[in-house]
Structure formats: C-alpha cells, structure tokens
Amino acid sequence: MSKEIPLATVKTHNKPNDLWLIIDNKVYDVTKFLHEHPGGEETLIDVAGRDGTKAFNDVGHSSEARQILKKYFIGNLAAADIPKKGPVSCRQIGLALGAAFLGISLIYVIRRGLARN
Ligand code: HEM
How remote is the CA of residue 104 from the centroid of ligand 1, in Å? Predict the structure, then answer.
C-alpha cells in the first residue's frame, strides 16, 4: 500500500526548491521537474503545497503529461483530508429551493389573477 500523506505535510513543501502538489488526491514531488515544465515554472509555483487538480485539468494536459506525473508520485493524500462529496451538493439544494420558490410564487400569482375574474 502506498504511503498516506496528510494535507498539513503537503502544505509545508510549497517552495520552488521543495515543491509538492496534489492532483486527483495523489501527492507529487515535482521539485526536479520544475525547470523542465513546458508550461513554465510559475504555473507550478502557483499551486505549490496545494491541490493543483483544477489547474492541471483546465490546461488539458496530454496523456504524455500524465505519464510524466507518475514518475514524481510519492503517496496518496490522507483519507481524512480528501473532501467528501455528499449525495447532493449545496448548489443542487440551492437550485431546488429556488425552483420551488419560483413555482409557488407563480401559482400564487395565477390564482390571484383567476380570483379577480
Ligand atoms: C506537476 C504536474 C504537471 C506535469 C507533469 C505537467 C506537464 C506538462 C507537459 C508535458 C506539458 C506539454 C504539453 C502536454 O503534453 O500536455 C505541459 C504544458 C503546460 N502546462 Fe503542465 N504539467 C503539470 C502541471 C501543471 C499545472 C499545475 C499547471 C497550472 C496551470 C500547468 C500548466 C501548463 C500550461 C499552461 C502548459 C501549456 C504550455 C504551452 O502549450 O505553451 N501544468 N505541462
């Protein structure tokens, strides 16, 4: 089984000469890759010691890039630090409440309109 690394530990490796980052809940030590990165050093320094999943995916890296990544894998992010996704997100609850409110308001307005006639 691979090593589990707490988020607090990852956070301490946030410098150009000691640079870890998290992608898809896996921890990578990319210190040695920094100068080779075709996307520049700054992009990696920006997410040093943090979760770079979104930044990494947004660029649409090639499968070759994912292959390179494997070389720098040092362990999995500790299970306790992996954000849990509930069955429904807050956004979904907000949308459902908004839709319900709109629906009820509409019924109210229609019924009042009908009552007048
Ligand atoms: C440590 C993990 C990473 C590896 C192994 C990696 C590897 C690569 C590779 C091989 C390329 C060349 C194009 C390709 O094959 O897709 C590339 C390009 C690029 N990467 Fe990364 N990358 C990593 C993380 C990131 C992060 C976190 C960012 C943040 C935004 C980033 C931004 C970019 C950009 C902007 C390019 C495009 C460069 C260009 O086309 O001019 N990369 N990366």
Answer: 49
* 60 Cα to the center of ligand 1, angstroms: 8
The CA distance from 74 to 69, in Å, is: 10
- Provide the ipTM: 0.91
Q: Under 8 Å CB-to-CB from 56, ≥6 apart: which residues? A: 23
Q: What residue ranges do the domains of the chain occupy?
A: 4-81, 85-117
Classified by CATH at the fold level, domain 4-81 comes out as Flavocytochrome B2; Chain A, domain 1 (3.10.120)
Mutate which of 30, 43, 70 for ligand 1? The one with the most ligand atoms within 8 Å of its CB, which is: 43
- Closest C-alpha residue for ligand 1 atom 6: 65
Put simply, whether the predicted model's pTM sits higher than 0.90 gets the answer no
